Amino acid sequence: MGALNLLLYSVFAVIVIISATINDGPIVETKYGALKGEYLKAKGKDTVIYSYLGVPFAKPPVGPLRLSAPQPAEQWKGIRDATKQPYMCVQDRDLSVNLTEHFSMTVEIPDVSEDCLYLNIYTPAKPSEDARLPVMAWIHGGGFTLGSASTFDGHALAAYQNVVVVLLQYRLGLLGFFSTGDEHAPGNYGLLDQVAALQWVQENIHSFGGDPGLVTIFGESAGAVSVSYHILSPLSAGLFQHAIAESGTAAIDALFTTSPLSVAQAVANVSGCDTSSTKQIVDCVKQLSKEDLLTFVKRVDLTFRVTQDGQFLPKPVNELLQNKKFNNVPFMTGISNDEAGYVILNPSDQWLYEIILNEYMGTTNNRTKIRDGFREMLGDFMFNIPARIVAKHHKDFGAPVYMYEFQHTFNELQKMRPSFTGADHGDEILSPNGPGLTPWPEFGAEAEYLGIGLEQKPGNNLKGKHYAFVTQTLPRLRHEKKDGPVVQTKYGALKGECVTAIGKNRVVYSYLGVPFAKPPVGPLRFTAPQPAEEWKGVRDATKQPYMCIQNRDATVELFSSLSISVEFPEVSEDCLYLNIYTPAKPDKDAKLPVMVWIHGGGLSIGSASGYDGSVLSAYQNVVVVLIQYRLGLFGFFSTGDEHAPGNYGLLDQVAALQWVQENIHSFGGDPGSVTIFGESAGGSSVSFLLLSPLSTGLFHRAIAESGTAVMKPLVENPLPAAQQLANMSGCDISSTQKIAECVKRWPTEDVIELSKERLFLRFVVTVDKAFLPKPVEELLQAQEFHKVPLITGVTNDEFGWLLPRPHTQYINELVLEEYLGSSEDPIQIRDAFTEMMGDLVFTIPALTLARAHKAAGAPVYLYEFQHPPSIIQVNRPSFVRTDHGDELPFVFGLCFGNAHVKATASFSTEEKELCRTMMAYWGNFARTGTPNGAGRSPWPEFGAEAEYLGIGLEQKPGKNLKAEHYIFMTETLPELVAAAQQKEHAEL
């Protein structure tokens, strides 16, 4: 916008001037010849100003001098007329004209020409021969593509401040900054023109009453960037004594390039030049006609920038600043309070871009806040933060530094702008000067500055929060992203990567595919997992691990139907790995809560890669561990005896939890504060781990979502399934030993085919005497389980993949009567049937588990999840409410996902708040053993009235969830069955 507003700044003169030309203009003698100027007066001042326009300071850079350093001006004879504006350097003149018309301004716009190296000089009238007035040399802005001396008028400043004002021009665009990056076209010709102009000032300004030992260079936008470059350049040493950089510094990367050759080649290609060498390119471009050159000024895709040419700019900007290799002069720099950028920030990494957006906009959907945050972000990155960076370097070098924020919007300009705009880029150029100024504090340890407006207000630490973010947080993140975080575990070192969550500045370190056991292959098939082996060197932990053997196509199809994009790896028996997410830079003695996730999938499908723990980690400041375990045949095959006792998948979970106990401190986690949580078969796994003596001391809290060990279909006699499989495989089934030995040799490919043909072939949990020593009912009734705080719950429209199979037709009829009655309405039958299925498979078992834990004295929290995710609901029949697993996008904060698991549709604002709510409840529970915490609706503890929390877009406490059906299933039905059995026995 600043480039487009450049001509607006001509009001530098337009607003405040009355011109009065006298026939006999003033004459001054310079080293190169005599000049005849004219007389001007500024409104409100009696001081007469001499103006001299179009004063040549170098030879015209045309012909063989194109794309070369400027040469000293030639002398002239007689008196040169200096009353007309010089040609503007080659640029898009139409753009300048359109802008002045748009802003209803009268500005003389000269034609453009390569012959443009001229100065406009304004000096108070009749300076004495020994006058030594301060000199102020103005360098115009315009993104190095637009601007001229003629769009500014220095005589008001000269009159009010009794200074000599010099406005200089320099080559722009292709002619000023074309470069091949070598000796044939080193570039920076526009900056070299500025050096030549300052050298001319040193030689001649005394003739105008100016003091060559008291020169201040000042500029705005690209002009300020130029000022900042002159401070860095050895070629400018001694040519000025003070510097003012308004809304621009050399720390702005957008106007610098390290690879100019690509643009040079593009110019050559467009122009039909030979590109076989840089010399051929330069020779050809030097021959282009003026018409050819004018075609490039409208090419927004070709930008010509400052380069490190080895002469004007000998080293990179940061290196010169850090090593204090610059001209140590008093320095003023500042910004306006509503800067905006011409160049949209384009970090090299989408990951980094998201972090920056989070810093400025968070997760708001408010269009006004997004607009304001985006404008502030662009202003900070393009102008504000670079200004503070440069100011600090100058201060550290011992130079006096003064910083400002310009805060006033001029009425005439504000009429042409949206009402929300503050003091925009370049607005300070219009400001008049006056006496009685408020004291301006020197920039120091507290980053003092002056707020300049209709009232002046000193302040400190301008843009402090964002300055710290850009100068400290971002460089650290770039470094870590490039090199990756490294952590040392008991088994070896791991190199991870940095990830972020939308709406949070906290970076999370992710370590993927961390082995917690030996690969369960060969002789280790159908055996308990063995400890992982150590490795040497640093292990790459940036790729998702193989999924355990399953029907991969079914897994991919399932997630795609849920409007969720996931990068799924291939399947393998070598699959016992963890994915770990931890907040960045945990202290050595950090003890963050640990949340270990066990995926669902009917013990047949699922993986760690189907979930992303980074959002939960970032939002709740916890360490999240996603585990994998053997599935299907490899995880739960059993002959029911010592030859294949089964439960290998559950033993894998135990091994993963043991690994966590040994190693999680290295990730900043507290091994004494581990919460296990899972959904569906993962919820059932959590419940089994509560019952198992093998998991004693491995966790301290538990969350079972839509799944418990009370789900009867998960625990059955395994031998019939083992025999069926042996028959299919052509195995000898004369003994369980022969069955086990045969299946152990079965090729992996055959197992994969089996998983495709029979997705949920029933391999179930068994009473193996080790992991599960007794039937579930006995363990619960005897209270032989880990009495830790528990969250359990269901959705309000659960449905099961595993159909209940009552033992007799009589029981089946009783259950159907309870739910369906005598209705013949197909809608009522459908709804009642889905409710019955959800109750039998999920809800009643959850209530049973909750009551058992409560009776044993453990804190219990029950929920019913009541909101279907909008991204999933669109793909369902309208009658479906909140289905099985619908809470998972909210538990894992999919609304804010930015890693490999992403929603392919948008969540509503209310759903994003629900994401925060669910993560907060789960995170609070992991920290304290209760889900309650500040800013969230109270969640009642499960007690005598079966209290629970209805969780949705609004949270609603309730009591006695599914009370009537629960009483029927746990009291009425058993009594009716017992009575029927007694009657049958009596009749016999």
Q: What does this 3D model show about the protein?
A:
The protein is of the alpha/beta class and 988 residues long. The chain has three domains: 6-328, Alpha/Beta hydrolase fold, catalytic domain (Rossmann fold, 3-Layer(aba) Sandwich), CATH 3.40.50; 330-334 and 349-424 and 439-483, no CATH class; 484-969, 3-Layer(aba) Sandwich (Rossmann fold), CATH 3.40.50.1820. 49% of the residues are buried. Mean pLDDT is 84; it is low at 1-22, 338-348, 410-435, 800-808 and 983-988. Belongs to the type-B carboxylesterase/lipase family.
Coarse shape: elongated
Total number of strands: 33
Q: Could you say what the CATH architecture of the largest domain is? A: 3-Layer(aba) Sandwich
The CATH first-level class of the largest domain comes to Alpha Beta
CATH topology of the largest domain: Rossmann fold
Task: Explain briefly what this protein structure is.
With 988 residues, the chain is α/β, with parallel strands linked by helices. It is built from 29 helices and 33 strands. It folds into three domains: 6-328, Rossmann fold; 330-334 and 349-424 and 439-483, no CATH class; 484-969, 3-Layer(aba) Sandwich (Rossmann fold), CATH 3.40.50.1820.
